[in-house]
Here is the input.
Amino acid sequence: MSDQLIIFDTTLRDGEQSPGASMTKDEKLRIARQLERLKVDVIEAGFAASSNGDFDCVQAIANTVKDSTICSLARANDRDIARAAEALKGANRARIHTFIATSQLHMEKKLRMTPDQVLEQARQSVRFARNLCGDIEFSPEDGYRSDMDFLCRVLEAVIQEGATTLNIPDTVGYAIPELYGNFIRTLRERIPNSDKVIWSVHCHNDLGMAVANSLAGVKLGGARQVECTINGLGERAGNCSLEEIVMAVRTRRDYFGLDVNVDATQIVPASRMVSQTTGFVVQPNKAVVGANAFAHASGIHQDGVLKARDTYEIMRAEDVGWSANKIVLGKLSGRNAFKQRLQDLGIQMESEGEINTAFASFKELADRKSEIFDEDILALCSDESVTAEKEQFGLVSLSQHSETGERPHAQVVFTINGKEFQGASDGNGPVDASLKAIETHVKSGAEMLLYSVNAITSGSTESQGEVTIRLQQGGRVVNGVGADPDIVVASAKAYLSALNKLHSRAERVAAQG
Ligand code: KIV
Ligand code: ZN
Here is the structure.
């Protein structure tokens, strides 16, 4: 059996299914380039048949990213599969990932199909897909809660039809490590042609065991592919976290005996990028990528680490990319240095005009903040005022007055499709007043589900504030993110960014609906 563990990243597909985590094409491309720098083996770029927007994203990533295999999800039907194949045409290496539910509950209540119908559909779909692409992954959705005998029949049939990877999802995060590991092993032992495929694990984190279950699938079950997401992003409690899997296998190579291709020094930059793009903040005590993951507060620990690092540290912060958090540019940096840094960070601006706008914003920021970090540049380039021509809503200016004992008042000038509007309002605080000022014109009626402020780079009040606002309207949930040294301005940017997402996102078919 191979000693290589394939890392299959599904941040852009399963991760994006988290309510509010939807990303634009530019954002997805940026993350895909970072995943390529991270050297993940497979990038699941989206679900091409779910919407024209998703199709475009998969296509753009397939045309751009050349070092990783690019994969599209497809339900087990000819239309979805043909659409996936079409979107993947430009890829160096393409994979179609087709799935159908196999648990009794899903077949009966959701699909309203008999087991024999599901078996036939799985078989036909893989046959159809195999004629379009040499690399076919098949997933029995809710596989872990499926009847073992039936699952064996389905999986044996799809191997006969030419599936090359079999992925066993614990769709609802119900598994326990030992049981899941044994489940995979039993499948491999009982299916006669099981050695013809690579076995893969796909675990959700509802009971907080996605990483443990995946590792058990590898160690006990013999799986050689793990499906995971950056920061464990994903629906409900999320997916298995890429950084934890990679570092567990690396750090405990003595136990797992497996190699991974991933360039771990790109982990923290990838984590930052995903968190800044989606507005899903990483908890400080999150393994590997949390702000406190390598911080030692207790005197005894600090003393130990200073004497010998491995007294309290099992990984080196710099090995997972923490050293990337350094001052990169300042007030005196020129346009070329800025442009080079954009390239190093994998940020591609469409035109020289866009670079000029971003550079002007950078200069403005550098006037107010002496040290500019990579995170500041990323935030600046995600800022919709830099790419304002594409967006419906954009911030022009904001002024607000607040004083102890007085009710705060704000005035906001913003654009709607290029036309300027001015709104004014009182509020409980300056943020509330500013958002109400915007609402005097927009009247979105959206419900705010979340408002959070974080410092982009820790350690100083000079840092930019990064605000995430989650809005819900008509069953849709979106996150807007805004950054600025002034958190009231950051809040207005985040609000307008959320409004842009509410207005732009096309309806899509849900992968597991
Ligand atoms: O969790 C799941 O079952 C999935 C499949 C579509 C692979 O994401
Ligand atoms: Zn999933």
In short: The mean pLDDT is 92. The two ends are 36 Å apart (CA to CA).
